[in-house]
Each structure stands twice: as structure tokens, then as C-alpha cells.
């Protein structure tokens, strides 16, 4: 679909946002190669096995809601942030960094 954009649309600074059904490293890499950015929640089974955030016990019992950790794939420029909500939530992005919001 992205390859079928008209020349007028393909020059726009578009950013795509996905839910966890569509987010994966392959689509984020594909978008980045074509000059677009993407962000979305990502399922653990779609995070590369080499990523240190994939460990099940990444958060200790002493950590509280709102705590987060991050990792970056320097080759593709994809950042993954995992934070504690009621459960651990993971987000992958090619355009947003790790900047927590103030309380």
C-alpha cells in the first residue's frame, strides 16, 4: 500500500501508528527504508530474541507502576520501551525516544 502512494503524498512527513496486531520489527524497518516513521505497541513474540527486554523477569518486585526500561537497535534505529502498567507493556518506535511524562 505504501509503495502505491502518489508522488504528492509520498513527499509528506507521514508517521504511522499501530496497535499490537500490526506492529513488528519487519514493518518498522520497511517504513524506515522508505522514509516514513512508525510507532506501536508490540507483542513480546515479535521482539527479536537478541533484545535484552525479552526476559520475563525484567522488572523486580520492588519496581512500581510507571517504571520503564529501554533498548535500541542501532542498525535499524528502532527503540523499544517496556514499562509497568498493570502488566508490562512494550512499545517500538522509529521516531519517538524515551522521554517520560511528568506526574
Write a compact overview of the structure shown:
InterPro entries: PGBD, PiggyBac_TE-derived. With 103 residues, the chain is an alpha+beta fold.
Any overview of this molecule?
The protein is α+β, with helices and mostly antiparallel strands and 103 residues long. The chain has a domain at 12-47 and 65-95. 13% of the residues lie in helices and 27% in strands. It has 2 helices and 5 strands, in the order αβαββββ. The protein has helices at residues 7-10, 25-33; strands spanning 15-18, 37-41, 68-73, 78-84, 88-93. The protein has a 5-stranded mixed sheet with strand order 1-2-5-4-3, covered by helices on one side. Strand 1, helix 2 and strand 2 form a beta-alpha-beta unit. The model has no long low-confidence stretch (mean pLDDT 84). This is PiggyBac transposable element-derived protein domain-containing protein. Residues 15-97 form the PiggyBac transposable element-derived protein domain. One of its GO terms (molecular function) is sequence-specific DNA binding.
Tags for this model:
103 residues; alpha+beta; five-stranded mixed beta sheet; 2 helices; 13% helix
List the SSEs and their pairings.
Blueprint: H1 7-10, E1 15-18, H2 25-33, E2 37-41, E3 68-73, E4 78-84, E5 88-93
Parallel strand pairs: 1-2
Antiparallel strand pairs: 2-5, 3-4, 4-5
Shape: elongated
- Report the β-strand fraction as a percent range: 25-35%
Major sheet, described briefly? 5 strands, mixed
Strand order of the largest sheet: 1-2-5-4-3
Q: Which value, in Å, is the CA radius of gyration?
A: 15 Å
- According to DSSP, the number of beta strands is 5
State the end-to-end distance.
40 Å
Average pLDDT level: 84
Helix content: 10-25%
Determine the structural class based on helices, strands and strand pairing.
Answer: alpha+beta
Protein name: PiggyBac transposable element-derived protein domain-containing protein
Organism: Rhamnusium bicolor
Domain PiggyBac transposable element-derived protein: 15-97
GO molecular function, one term: sequence-specific DNA binding
Amino acid at each position: 500500500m505504501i509503495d502505491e502512494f502518489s508522488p504528492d503524498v509520498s513527499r509528506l512527513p507521514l508517521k504511522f501508528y499501530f496497535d499490537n496486531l500490526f506492529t513488528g520489527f519487519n514493518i518498522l524497518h520497511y517504513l524506515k527504508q522508505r522514509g516514513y516513521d512508525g510507532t506501536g505497541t508490540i507483542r513480546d513474540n515479535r521482539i527479536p530474541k537478541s533484545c535484552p527486554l525479552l526476559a520475563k523477569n525484567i522488572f523486580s518486585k520492588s519496581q512500581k507502576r510507571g517504571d520503564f526500561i529501554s533498548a535500541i537497535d542501532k542498525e535499524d534505529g528502532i527503540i523499544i520501551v517496556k514499562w509497568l502498567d498493570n502488566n508490562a507493556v512494550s512499545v517500538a518506535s522509529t521516531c519517538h525516544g524515551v522521554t517520560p511524562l511528568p506526574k
